[in-house]
Amino acid sequence: MSRKQQLLKRHRRNKRLGLLAALVALLLLGVFSWWWLPLLLLPLLWAGHEAWFADHLFYAPGEDYAYDFGEHAVETTVSLRGGMLVTDVALAGDETLVLALRVKSTWLGRFLDPRIELMAGAQSDRQTFERGVDGLRYLNLTGLAAPLQAGGLRLRGRHCRLQGEPRLWVTPSVELRRRRVMVIAPHADDAELAAYGLYSQAEETWVVTLTAGEIEAEHYQQMGMGQADAARLKGRLRAWDSIAVPRWAGVPESQCIQLGYFCLQLPAMQADPDVPMASREAELDDIRTFRQFNPLQLPGDVDGAPTWRNLLADLRALLELAKPQVLVMPHPQLDPHPDHICAQAAVLEALEGLAWQPQTLLCYANHLHDNDRWPMGESGDGVALPPQLEAGQPWAPCSLVLDLAIQRDKAMALGMMHDLQPPAPFKRRLRRLLQRWLAGRRPSPYGENEFFRKAVRRHELFWRRELNNDL
């Protein structure tokens, strides 16, 4: 069981115990007081819970975030005077800028999402934090270098206060758009969620999707299909998405590859590299089923066996063919999804001994251990750094700014993904309605799925490491 699954299990257990205790208290109140009072309070308590306490937050909002940005990020002097951020450091304008400061929620910020507004004339941004926040947080100021250097960047807390002396880290930019970029996507839509803005602007892009993402096909079972048939249909659709959707961004079909391995089987494949791992739900043990749209032959096409050995051979063939200068893949510590962890491990293992080596590694997090709402806030807002409570390996932040036109194109790309199209369950839709009425949360204008809110943002955030041909 992964750490996130353990945290979720503990969260649900504690919530059930809390609800049971509240129910017993209400029943006792009804017995010894007014019998009708529990009937009135129960729906009100449930609505309050859904509006204010239903977030999956597996840490205390009063804990500090902790980061080690490594040698590429330089800490510079900065001060906050009357709400204006002031620095005398010379900036080129395209750096990644991260501001650390303490944020303390007001009492209202326990019920409405606390956020910091960044204002600089016609430019503005908002970055949102946990309700009840009281600790060190990291703002993303990328794209605001000009007003910052001119002394025209104002910070204002909404439902929170800014405290202490801020600290600014500057990471010099690295050329990405004029280099060959390969995006590794464990599932169809991971490349678009994390890196559509990057890969749509790169001079040359390859998008390599590792799995068909065929499981959890209940939406298709509602059409009258059995589990296996529904899983096969879902896998075929997502395989098509992984090939077709990058074309929206101008990526040639010849550079969109679907490897067709089975969802949530990569950890088992890694544990027994020579043993085929069949699909959990589709009753398939041949990866070629989901490779029918590929424009080229790969080593795994010989026998179609879903093994770690075949996955490594496929990746080596693609790396030698594409010769990417920039590799984009999931972050090994921040992103807890088992397939995402194995995807990064597979690529690094495949690179061992290859004559061609990339120069830059960019990592992304489409999922988090501790906070299912990150990035918090609304579509179009900036992306503050995610919660991390212990500084692990040093990684330099690398953030791109997406203009409104690219954000809209990214939203349309996500809208083409079949896995983001089914309607949300009734309970989730009701919860969002209550949160909109009681907590002031607005839905994304681009779509109902939560990823439209989380991914269509002013920033795309990566973690950068220069490899220097030494893995």
Order of helices and strands: HHEEEEEEEHEEEHEHHEHHEHEEHHHE
In the sheet with the most strands, the strands line up as: 12-11-10-13-14-16-15
- Shape estimate: globular
Structural class: alpha+beta
Number of strands: 16
Gyration radius, rounded: 24 Å
> Looking at this structure, what is the CATH superfamily of the largest domain?
LmbE-like
Q: What is the CA–CA distance across the termini? A: 29 Å
Question: Tell me, what is the CATH class of the largest domain?
Answer: Alpha Beta
Strand-residue proportion: 15-25%
| Name given to the CATH architecture of the largest domain | 3-Layer(aba) Sandwich
- Assign a percent range to the helix content: 25-40%
Helix run count = 12
| Poorly predicted residue ranges | none
InterPro entries: GlcNAc_PI_deacetylase-related (IPR003737), LmbE-like_dom_sf (IPR024078)
Organism: Pseudomonas putida
Pfam family, one: PIG-L
Protein name: PIG-L family deacetylase
Can you offer a commentary on this structure?
- The strands form three sheets. The protein has a seven-stranded mixed β-sheet with strand order 12-11-10-13-14-16-15, sandwiched between helices.
- It has helices at residues 3-32, 37-52, 145-149, 190-201, 218-221, 227-244, 266-271, 308-322, 338-351, 404-416, 426-439, 450-455, and strands spanning 74-76, 79-81, 84-86, 96-105, 115-120, 123-128, 134-140, 153-158, 160-171, 180-185, 204-211, 256-261, 326-330, 360-364, 396-401, 459-466.
- Helix 4 crosses helix 10 (404-416).
- The chain has three domains: 3-53; 74-171; 180-466, LmbE-like (Rossmann fold), CATH 3.40.50.10320.
- The chain is globular, with a radius of gyration of 24 Å.
- It is of the alpha+beta class and 471 residues long.
- The protein contains twelve helices and 16 strands.
- 32% of the residues lie in helices and 21% in strands.
